[in-house]
């Protein structure tokens, strides 16, 4: 690893993990509020013009969204993006650069959901907001949406946004009115709700040659704050000790009541749900504690599709696809222009290959 990369990793570790804990006096909730403040300093209401797009802010079903309108429409696909940040940090505007990298050559519309962060609102509020946006787009209840085609709707998200992308896509597949509304989905190093915090990728965290901002402890704190539970050492320890995908919590622990909820843990969905999901692209970071569960979920989707349509197995071989970036760490699309461009290019090519765009 180069000297510059080592220095960058140390700075990222200090400002994202160490400093918030110091300023928050080692209280997880206070430290998370500091991270939230630091990562949302930019004015999320700011509109802007680029060479190819006009970016503005709109409300869809009373949910704040970032709207990307191409100056020259080339494709009728509509991308709905759900940003990451552990449900507690970041905002839609932080992803302008990444979304522009995806759509700059597609000239299509994009709507990025600026859902309410935890701890201000706890689960399932953000999920409900994302679903409200889906319903609003489908019904075109905003004047801006009237002329936007919904024939090719692609939902995508990273990290916690990948979690909500999986949840929303599963929910739509079960809904008679919306089961054909989402045509494809993209999961970028997603958290999929595995409660196995002792899998190989979790245990390898301290061995990664590249620093990953998402540590096992921080992931546990994100989950607890999102669920409205106290992120104290006792609760964090219980999550870190769990070594089962379904969670091995005591019956008197509040986590026991939510561990099987597929709106938190979409990885636990039954095969009869997974077999009805639309096409997918799962993007994995090699140096990421979430690597294992991303691969497991991809395999579950792929196997359920084969069971569903075994006679046409050749035709569905690439229905669900996966790509592992060997030198990518979790969250790197937000800190590396090179990583952002590489991931965006893969997504753009996948959209074109699957005839969602041209």
UniProtKB/TrEMBL annotation:
<dbReference type="GO" id="GO:0004771">
    <property type="term" value="F:sterol ester esterase activity"/>
</dbReference>
<dbReference type="InterPro" id="IPR029058">
    <property type="entry name" value="AB_hydrolase_fold"/>
</dbReference>
<protein>
    <submittedName>
        <fullName>Abhydrolase_3 domain-containing protein</fullName>
    </submittedName>
</protein>
<dbReference type="InterPro" id="IPR013094">
    <property type="entry name" value="AB_hydrolase_3"/>
</dbReference>
<feature type="domain" description="Alpha/beta hydrolase fold-3">
    <location>
        <begin position="79"/>
        <end position="308"/>
    </location>
</feature>
<dbReference type="GO" id="GO:0004806">
    <property type="term" value="F:triacylglycerol lipase activity"/>
</dbReference>
<dbReference type="Pfam" id="PF07859">
    <property type="entry name" value="Abhydrolase_3"/>
</dbReference>
<dbReference type="GO" id="GO:0005829">
    <property type="term" value="C:cytosol"/>
</dbReference>
<dbReference type="GO" id="GO:0019433">
    <property type="term" value="P:triglyceride catabolic process"/>
</dbReference>
């Amino acid at each position: 690893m180069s000297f510059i990369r080592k220095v960058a990793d140390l700075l990222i570790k200090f400002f994202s993990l160490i400093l918030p804990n110091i300023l928050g006096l080692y209280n997880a909730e206070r430290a998370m509020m500091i991270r939230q403040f630091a990562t949302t300093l930019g004015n999320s209401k700011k509109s802007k013009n680029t060479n190819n797009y006009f970016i503005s802010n709109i409300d869809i079903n009373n949910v704040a969204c970032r709207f990307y309108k191409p100056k020259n429409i080339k494709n009728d696909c509509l991308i709905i993006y759900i940003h990451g940040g552990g449900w507690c940090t970041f905002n839609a505007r932080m992803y302008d650069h990444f979304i522009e990298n995806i759509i700059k050559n597609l000239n299509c519309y994009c709507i990025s959901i600026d859902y309410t962060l935890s701890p201000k609102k706890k689960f399932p509020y953000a999920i409900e907001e994302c679903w409200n946006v889906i319903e609003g787009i489908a019904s075109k209840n905003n004047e801006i949406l009237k002329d936007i085609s919904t024939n090719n709707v692609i939902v995508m998200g990273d990290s916690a946004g990948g979690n909500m992308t999986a949840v929303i896509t599963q929910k739509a597949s079960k809904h008679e009115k919306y089961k054909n509304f989402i045509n494809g989905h993209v999961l970028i190093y997603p958290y999929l709700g595995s409660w196995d915090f002792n899998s190989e990728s979790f245990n390898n965290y301290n061995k990664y040659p590249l620093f990953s901002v998402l540590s096992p402890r921080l992931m546990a704190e994100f989950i607890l704050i999102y669920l409205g539970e106290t992120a104290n050492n006792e609760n964090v320890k219980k999550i870190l000790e769990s070594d089962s995908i379904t969670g091995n919590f005591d019956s008197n622990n509040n986590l026991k009541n939510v561990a099987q909820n597929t709106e938190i843990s979409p990885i636990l969905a039954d095969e009869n749900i997974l077999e009805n999901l639309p096409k997918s692209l799962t993007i994995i970071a090699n140096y990421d504690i979430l690597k294992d569960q991303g691969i497991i979920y991809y395999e579950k989707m792929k196997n359920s599709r084969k069971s569903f349509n075994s006679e046409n197995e050749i035709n569905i071989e690439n229905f669900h696809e996966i790509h592992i970036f060997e030198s990518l760490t979790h969250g790197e699309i937000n800190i590396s222009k090179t990583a952002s461009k590489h991931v965006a290019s893969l997504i753009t090519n996948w959209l074109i290959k699957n005839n969602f765009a041209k």
